[in-house]
Amino acid sequence: MAEDEKSLNVTEESNPTRKHKGKHDKPKPWDDPSIDHWKIEKFDPEWNQSGLLEVSTFSTIFPQYREKYLQQYWPIVTLLLCAFFNDLSNSNFVAGSMTVLTTMKTRDPYIILKARDLIKRLSRSVFAPQAVKILNDEMQCDIIKIGSLVRNKGNIVATMGSFKGLKQVRRIVEDCVLNKMHPLHHIKILMLKRELAKNPALASENWDRFLP
């Protein structure tokens, strides 16, 4: 009986089940090189004619030294929010805090997240003319926390741009703070990539041989 069990174990060890690597790597309909996956489609109000069913609210506080500046620009910010929310009662400014909320007239469900990012940028010393650009569909934002990486350069870096650009900026900031690479080298690489992208013959080739 013991010999039969040993022979069975030897047989199982000699014939292990092999896992084929890449067996799920099949052609997918969205793997089309002609499609720009970074592109953000502009919202059409006809996609949501009935509006929103629930009210969403976001609030943030700001330091006291920003209050005078925010009071000066808040009427302009309110008018811009009205254009996106279709209602004037979508924002509130009181001493020490800013609030944005959706109303029954709001059509774009994602605009409340854009408004949340707007008031966060305003509270983090971003100039109002630059911060309001976040309301556009093609503009995104990111907060890079550097307080744990360096002690005397602040705590955060506020960035705005496309998804692809934010990824590049994060790499540049982290490499600069950690002294891995000077930002000038990153800028040279980005300038070379921009020039190479203008050449259609090199669009589908590897650019490593051209980069420093």
Automatic annotation (TrEMBL):
One of its GO terms (cellular component) is nucleolus. CDD domains: KH-I_KRR1_rpt1. It is found in: Nucleus, Nucleolus. Its main location: nucleus. The keyword RNA-binding applies. PANTHER family: HIV-1 REV BINDING PROTEIN 2, 3, KRR1 SMALL SUBUNIT PROCESSOME COMPONENT HOMOLOG. This is KRR-R motif-containing protein 1. It comes from Capsicum annuum (Capsicum pepper).
